[in-house]
Amino acid sequence: MKKTNVFVISVVFVLTFALALQAQYVTQTFGENQSVNWSSQVVRATGIGAPNPNLPIAAQRSTAIRAAQLDALRNLLETIKGIYLSSETTVRNAMVENDVIRTRVEGLAQNFKQIEGPKYMSDGSVEVVYEMPITGAILDALLPGQFGGGQYSTAGQMVCPTCGQPWPQGKPVPPGVTLQQVGGTTMTATTSGAYTGLVIDCKGLGVRPAMAPKIVDEQGNEIYGSKFVSREWAVEIGMVGYDKDVNRARQNDRVTNNPLVIKGMQSSGPNKTDVVISNADAALIHQASANQNFLDKCKVMFIVN
């Protein structure tokens, strides 16, 4: 009895721990058997196949496996199609509008990795799970061919000399504190070190994950996006990383070890995948990146719900 209790407790602990880890990920679900994990940038789909009762018993299992694999492949492709490409379009829209993109994506979906199964059910059906990265070949097929050409906006902005963050307008400056100005071609604020990346806190703004999101200022000017990114880096690691926690994001290899953290103002675009920031923060980001080049290498993370 004691061994049984220990086993049950162990199983409950493992399941609870697994669910806790899953809750940390930024995921989107597409039906019961399809999802996108934006934290690890992979798409996952489950396929289920039933045996053909008209075939001999010996052949039924292999045909069920094949049916499950084809079902998983269809679900994988449908999941990819449902992903937001940008604030205006989905992958499905891009495939409809461009036959070259459609052909490439459909072909690339064959490059799946089977991560679970085949799992044999009591009714004779079979289940398999496929997974495929969003980064790499898929992004190469979907992202626009032309990148770059953006001009940095580095209008003067007063910042805290200790943390380098914009000083709130109207806030009294304590005695003994001298604000520094970000402007021209030099960042004069004394910080704990050069910024190594950018974290945008989008909590509560309803921002949704996408393959090619943007950061814009209050007038809608692009502050981060294809105009300021190396296409090679965008294809390799994705334009933005996603997390649910600011402190955990600070430790992410993408932006460590001293990211600039900015609070977003609101979501933008029909698909709500872009984020609006203040003009002052926009100037600070561009000034910092002009000196450290972290925008070009996609060292950017969005914190979402």
- The strand line-up of the biggest sheet is 1-2-3-5-4
Query: What is the rounded Rg?
Result: 24 Å
Uncertain runs are: 11-21, 183-192
Through-space gap between termini: 43 Å
Mean pLDDT: 86
Class of secondary structure makeup = alpha/beta
Large-scale geometry: elongated
Q: How many beta-strand elements?
A: 16
Number of helices: 8
- For this structure, the quaternary state is single chain
Q: What's the main sheet like?
A: 5 strands, antiparallel
How would you concisely characterize the structure shown here?
With 305 residues, this protein is of the alpha/beta class. The protein has helices at residues 2-24, 57-82, 91-97, 99-108, 137-142, 231-237, 246-250, 279-292; strands spanning 27-29, 34-37, 42-49, 113-120, 126-133, 157-159, 180-183, 186-187, 198-201, 215-216, 222-224, 241-243, 260-263, 266-268, 274-276, 300-303.
